[in-house]
Amino acid sequence: MSIQRRGIHLDQSELLCKKGCGFYGNAAWQGFCSKCWREEKQRQIQEDWALAERLQREEEEAYANRQQKSQPQAAVTPFNKFEERKNKEKSSKVHTVTKFFTPSTKTPPKKDAAPFDAHSGPSPSSSTRRHSCLEDERATQEFIDFLKPLKSGREIFKQCRAFTEGMVYKQDMGADELSECVQDFYQNLSDRLQAQFKGSSDHVESVMDEVEKYMMTRLYKAVFCPESTDDEKKDLAIQKRIRSLHWVTIEMLCVPVDEDIPEVSDRVVKAITDVIEMDSKWVPKEKLACITRCSKHIFNAIKVSKKEAASADDFLPTLIYIVLKANPPRLQSNIQYITRFCNPSRLMSGEDGYYFTNLCCAVAFIEKLDAQSLNLSSEEFELYMSGQASPNWLQTRGASSSSSGSTALTQVHNQADLSVLDKREEHVRKGARQLENDLIDWTNEVEQKVQSALESFPAGTPAPAGTAASEPAPAAPSAIDSENVENELLPPPLQPQVFAG
Amino acid sequence: MSSAGAAGTSNRTYSFKVVLLGEGCVGKTSLVLRYCENKFNDKHITTLQASFLTKKLNITGKRVNLAIWDTAGQERFHALGPIYYRDSNGAVLVYDVTDEDSFQKVKNWVKELRKMLGNDICLCIVGNKIDLDKDRHVSVEDAESYAESVGAKHYHTSAKLNKGIEELFLDLCKRMMETAHAEERAKGNGASQSAATRRGVQIVDDEPQATPAGGCCSSG
Ligand SMILES: Nc1nc2c(ncn2[C@@H]2O[C@H](COP(=O)(O)OP(=O)(O)OP(=O)(O)O)[C@@H](O)[C@H]2O)c(=O)[nH]1
Ligand SMILES: [Mg+2]
Ligand SMILES: [Zn+2]
């Protein structure tokens, strides 16, 4: 469908807002400009969710007097718990809730001037919230669209929105508690859906996916790599670690891919791109999808290289290799975020979960990696780690050797590598010594020549350099001529230095 | 009895995660490829990968989704085991009947799994390659009595001849269903694992790394 849109197919009328307001439209906003799109969307929301809004208000009023006694307890029944949590946050939440449902009030007049800044409304703004507003709105819209046909859609939306709004103001909570809250919510909601859909787990899954997408899009900025954790420190640590392991080769890891095959190296590049892309996604499930795509490229690379389906023994080393090559940004933060906020059923038994688990394994392996895990001697390992030696240049020669089963071979190569290095160094040292000797010889030689030249011009005769230049050639013997040429090459201070005293 | 326990969930689909553990070359990958794709040593397979495979079963009217996780068997990956097997409902511990060492490895796995996961996990000990019975180095009695002593079931299989594999997984599924029922009854609701148990990606440090890395085995 997007194929037609691609290319240079610019018709002005297509670019303008569908409402004809004169601003440019955007495909992402269904052809509207940002202003009209927002209005259009909000009109829809208004229609579809007016009732939900009213119920929300009634609920808030009903709970208003109970506001204080709302410590979260383990024993409360699922949804009461959320009502209570939500209620606790009620006062601050009202702004954001009504924002979605009352479009025209309080909107600053100059919003047309900045069509991409969706909201400059009166939200109790941490700046992060304002930045993610556009995403928030889109997520909300998509969530509503998805839920519309469901009988209980409105109820689900209400619960999720209430919970999400509540979470935004819990940033002072520890990451584990935040995760606990979200996981409890997932669990309770999916249990309820399970009962409601009479056990059709596919259906439950698809709703839960949308729930996660909606909630985590809105919560991302607040709960990704939160300050309360040392996620960021860990990110930097693994990044540094991977950088220090730049010398690790395919052979050391027993990676069964042959990058000389163009299709394979293409897959490798794609796998690297995908694992890097993970950082740009907001929703755990979408981050997982990046890992899964990366894994599929790896499987293809293995299959083309090995001509058989990849087993875990092929896959894990290759994934480790890809991670080492990619050094994905904020790796630990991403893993933690997924672990904390992903739908648990997906992580526990699904295919995405398998690849994610392998990524966790790869990271753990990289963190703990030592000489033994690469079949190296600890001396070699230290040498490579300290940057005193590198096995890489040998790579070009070793590349064609069959990759699997070549551990021993690699070791031999590495040792060969080392001894070759030794030889090279010896060679260089010899060269240096030789050069030194040559220099001494040369100086001596020059001294001698100069001396003999001086001796052949007894005192009283004009200085040799001057005469040689001004007098015609025949008077001087050829030997002196050639000596003169060499004399001219001498650095000027040499003569006076040698003969001054 | 079991139908009473599943009163509210008679229609539910079970999702089970099963990990395959065992030394390199004992036939883990072969077993699962045989089970899910009915293939053995087939170079022309259309399967892209043999590390994560699923199978849908219908056991006495209940739907079961089985996810089988292959694990990397090389010694140097041993310490990663806990990351793989956490949250799994079952483990298939494979050894090669012609290889005494591989049976010893299974015993180590059993110890570790029981230590980390207790009795929540259903263990199957599988002696593979019974088509090579003439080279057998692990006696049937030893293996079976060991399995019984640790509360595991023992099976004999041949991925090559497709023997014993269906039974192995069917049996395992039934046991995992029973465990799930028992858990539900204990907890009084349909929740599977509590959210708390699924958190924390960790690996244990105190691994008995007896032998140095074994290297690859693709020559065999
Ligand atoms: N005779 C015989 N050979 C088998 C059987 N099962 C597997 N093999 C062979 O054993 C070798 C190893 O099998 P894999 O399935 O790759 O073993 P694995 O346990 O997955 O090994 P890793 O992936 O290295 O951990 C292959 O050459 C198989 O053909 C069997 O039942 N009988
Ligand atoms: Mg295998
Ligand atoms: Zn417009």
Automatic annotation (TrEMBL), chain A:
<dbReference type="Pfam" id="PF18151">
    <property type="entry name" value="DUF5601"/>
</dbReference>
<dbReference type="InterPro" id="IPR045046">
    <property type="entry name" value="Vps9-like"/>
</dbReference>
<dbReference type="Pfam" id="PF02204">
    <property type="entry name" value="VPS9"/>
</dbReference>
<feature type="compositionally biased region" description="Low complexity">
    <location>
        <begin position="98"/>
        <end position="107"/>
    </location>
</feature>
<dbReference type="GO" id="GO:0005829">
    <property type="term" value="C:cytosol"/>
</dbReference>
<feature type="region of interest" description="Disordered">
    <location>
        <begin position="61"/>
        <end position="134"/>
    </location>
</feature>
<dbReference type="InterPro" id="IPR041545">
    <property type="entry name" value="DUF5601"/>
</dbReference>
<feature type="compositionally biased region" description="Basic and acidic residues">
    <location>
        <begin position="81"/>
        <end position="92"/>
    </location>
</feature>
<keyword id="KW-0479">Metal-binding</keyword>
<feature type="domain" description="VPS9">
    <location>
        <begin position="232"/>
        <end position="375"/>
    </location>
</feature>
<dbReference type="GO" id="GO:0008270">
    <property type="term" value="F:zinc ion binding"/>
</dbReference>
<dbReference type="GO" id="GO:0030139">
    <property type="term" value="C:endocytic vesicle"/>
</dbReference>
<dbReference type="GO" id="GO:0005085">
    <property type="term" value="F:guanyl-nucleotide exchange factor activity"/>
</dbReference>
<dbReference type="GO" id="GO:0016192">
    <property type="term" value="P:vesicle-mediated transport"/>
</dbReference>
<feature type="compositionally biased region" description="Low complexity">
    <location>
        <begin position="458"/>
        <end position="479"/>
    </location>
</feature>
<protein>
    <submittedName>
        <fullName>RAB guanine nucleotide exchange factor (GEF) 1, like</fullName>
    </submittedName>
</protein>
<dbReference type="GO" id="GO:0031267">
    <property type="term" value="F:small GTPase binding"/>
</dbReference>
<keyword id="KW-0862">Zinc</keyword>
<feature type="domain" description="A20-type">
    <location>
        <begin position="11"/>
        <end position="45"/>
    </location>
</feature>
<dbReference type="InterPro" id="IPR003123">
    <property type="entry name" value="VPS9"/>
</dbReference>
<dbReference type="InterPro" id="IPR037191">
    <property type="entry name" value="VPS9_dom_sf"/>
</dbReference>
<feature type="compositionally biased region" description="Polar residues">
    <location>
        <begin position="65"/>
        <end position="74"/>
    </location>
</feature>
TrEMBL record, chain B:
<dbReference type="InterPro" id="IPR027417">
    <property type="entry name" value="P-loop_NTPase"/>
</dbReference>
<keyword id="KW-0547">Nucleotide-binding</keyword>
<keyword id="KW-0342">GTP-binding</keyword>
<dbReference type="GO" id="GO:0005789">
    <property type="term" value="C:endoplasmic reticulum membrane"/>
</dbReference>
<comment type="similarity">
    <text>Belongs to the small GTPase superfamily. Rab family.</text>
</comment>
<keyword id="KW-0813">Transport</keyword>
<keyword id="KW-0472">Membrane</keyword>
<dbReference type="GO" id="GO:0007265">
    <property type="term" value="P:Ras protein signal transduction"/>
</dbReference>
<dbReference type="GO" id="GO:0003924">
    <property type="term" value="F:GTPase activity"/>
</dbReference>
<dbReference type="InterPro" id="IPR041833">
    <property type="entry name" value="Rab21"/>
</dbReference>
<dbReference type="GO" id="GO:0032482">
    <property type="term" value="P:Rab protein signal transduction"/>
</dbReference>
<dbReference type="GO" id="GO:0015031">
    <property type="term" value="P:protein transport"/>
</dbReference>
<dbReference type="InterPro" id="IPR005225">
    <property type="entry name" value="Small_GTP-bd"/>
</dbReference>
<dbReference type="Pfam" id="PF00071">
    <property type="entry name" value="Ras"/>
</dbReference>
<dbReference type="GO" id="GO:0005525">
    <property type="term" value="F:GTP binding"/>
</dbReference>
<dbReference type="InterPro" id="IPR001806">
    <property type="entry name" value="Small_GTPase"/>
</dbReference>
<dbReference type="GO" id="GO:0019003">
    <property type="term" value="F:GDP binding"/>
</dbReference>
<protein>
    <recommendedName>
        <fullName>Ras-related protein Rab-21</fullName>
    </recommendedName>
</protein>
<dbReference type="GO" id="GO:0032154">
    <property type="term" value="C:cleavage furrow"/>
</dbReference>
<dbReference type="GO" id="GO:0005886">
    <property type="term" value="C:plasma membrane"/>
</dbReference>
<keyword id="KW-0449">Lipoprotein</keyword>
<feature type="region of interest" description="Disordered">
    <location>
        <begin position="183"/>
        <end position="220"/>
    </location>
</feature>
